[in-house]
Amino acid sequence: MKTLIIINDAPYGTEKAFNGLRLANQILKDVETTEVVIFLMADAVTCALPNQKTPDGYYNIERMLKLFVQKKGVIKICTSCAEARGIDKLELVQGAFLSTMKELTQLTIESDKVITF
Description:
Helices cover 35% and strands 21% of the residues. It is of the alpha/beta class.
């Protein structure tokens, strides 16, 4: 099975990115045969920036993305969204790659489930 999770919100301020990543990691944990792709759009592209520092006891999106990649998850980032925010040339967390609407379209068509946050 293939699952595509599209995240639109910034890493902090709402819990949409947090909950999307919680679900993605849980799917990979519970259903080892599934493929999960996270596509970061709009302000969610900043989720993939490295060196995030959060208070002790507070969730950290960077750590959650690293766990996701360790479990063989795939992270794609909307290039035009990253360009609009001036981060398209910045380093990204390991395992995150710039992508396109064309690729998102293909991922959507190929996925058995598409979930948005």
